[in-house]
Every structure is written in C-alpha cells, then in structure tokens.
Automatic annotation (TrEMBL):
Protein's name according to its UniProt entry: CobQ/CobB/MinD/ParA nucleotide binding domain-containing protein
Source superkingdom: Bacteria
Gene3D superfamilies: P-loop containing nucleotide triphosphate hydrolases
Domain CobQ/CobB/MinD/ParA nucleotide binding, chain residue ranges per copy: 8-93
Parts forming coiled coils: none
Organism: Acidithiobacillus thiooxidans (Thiobacillus thiooxidans)
Length: 210
C-alpha cells in the first residue's frame, strides 16, 4: 500500500464496539506491514488509554481535536504513515462529519438490536454531510448463538446500505486484549475473535483498493 489510506469509525450510540473496531483495523494494518496511526477524536480517550498499556510501538495513537485533523493527516503522511484510523466520539456530530470528510472509507459498527438500528437515518445524514464518502456498516457485538447478527445484516442491506459480510461477535478475547493494550489478533491469534477481526480488515482493504 503506497498512498495513505484513511478509515474513520463512527457511531451514534456508545458501547457498540467503536474503539475496538478502530484498534482492530489499525493493528491488522500493522501486521500487514503498514505504518499506522490512530487519531483519537473521542474526549473519553479510550484508544489513547489503550496505547498507554501497550508495549508495541505501532500503531501510533494520538489524541487530537477534530479541528486539527487536516494538519495531523498531513504530518502523518510526511512521516511515512500510510494507514490512518480515526476514532470518533459517540453520538455522531461535527467531529464525525469532519472524520468522514477526510476518509476514504467510513466504518459504522452497529449492534444487532432495534435501539441501534433506529440510528441508521442519522448515521446516513452524517455520511451525506461528510460528502457522501464510501461507508460500510459492520454488525458488532452480536451474540455467538442464534441469528440476530445475520438478521440485522439482512435488514440493513435491504435499506440500501453496504454491510460487511463478516459479523464481529461478542467474544471475551476483545475485552481481555484491551485490558493489556492489545487486540484480539495479538492476544489470541488463533481464536475466533482474531479470525473475524482479520476478515473484517481484509474486506475493508478490498474496498480501499477498488
């Protein structure tokens, strides 16, 4: 990957796995040989706190206000960064719009229940305000039993949205990994959480290279 690719991760509701998805994509990109930075726009600074617990150098995680996004992207590119993930605040607003505006792809994790699915119109508005950039919905934190994740994916697809074919299920490896500054791919490389995470990254990458 020569030119710098930028992926933003946005959500309307908190607790849908937004930062987990952002860090998962970032680490997968590192493991694929990229120089990766994460811009943490979320005042809760979850990604920044995660990197404080981390031993590996990459991905770089930098907490910035959305108003510094353009300058920060240029600085990152000047330092040879070729993959950037932007983690945004929950309750999608102006910061999310700015993130979408500078992104080659926006990933939108949603939990497979009505309260989250009801936020689809507002999330779609955010994408439009950001310039109608490419977007990908991702079913996140689905139960490992039953077909609620698949049902949600089918419903969102029927609304005309692009949905990732891989579902991220609610697995303990994500939580345990975050506690020690890792992601599931590093914490349990041969586990189900790692397998799903890598498939999500590969699908994301396929959209970035079109």
């Amino acid at each position: 990957m020569s030119e710098c690719k930028v992926v933003s991760v946005i959500a309307e509701k908190g607790g849908v796995g937004k930062t987990t998805v952002a860090l998962t994509l970032a680490v997968a990109a590192v493991q694929a040989g990229n120089k990766v930075a994460v811009f943490d726009l979320d005042p809760q600074a979850t990604a920044t706190q995660w990197t404080d617990r981390r031993e590996a150098e990459f991905p770089w995680v930098v907490a910035i206000p959305s108003t510094r996004l353009s300058v920060s992207l240029e600085n990152a590119k000047a330092q040879g960064v070729n993959f950037v993930v932007i983690d945004t605040p929950p309750h999608a607003g102006s910061a999310s719009v700015e993130a979408v505006r500078y992104s080659d792809l926006t990933v939108i994790p949603v939990e497979p229940h009505l309260y989250t699915i009801e936020t689809l119109p507002k999330l779609n508005d955010i994408i439009r305000l950001g310039g109608d950039r490419p977007a990908l919905f991702l079913i996140s934190k689905a139960a490992t039993q039953g077909k609620e994740g698949l049902d949600a994916a089918t419903y969102i697809t029927k609304q005309g949205f692009n949905v990732c074919p891989t579902i991220l299920h609610l697995r303990a490896a994500h939580r345990h990994a975050g506690n020690v500054g890792m992601t599931a791919q590093e914490y349990e490389p041969k586990g189900k959480a790692s397998e799903e995470s890598n498939l999500v990254y590969m699908y994301t990458l396929s959209l970035l290279t079109i």
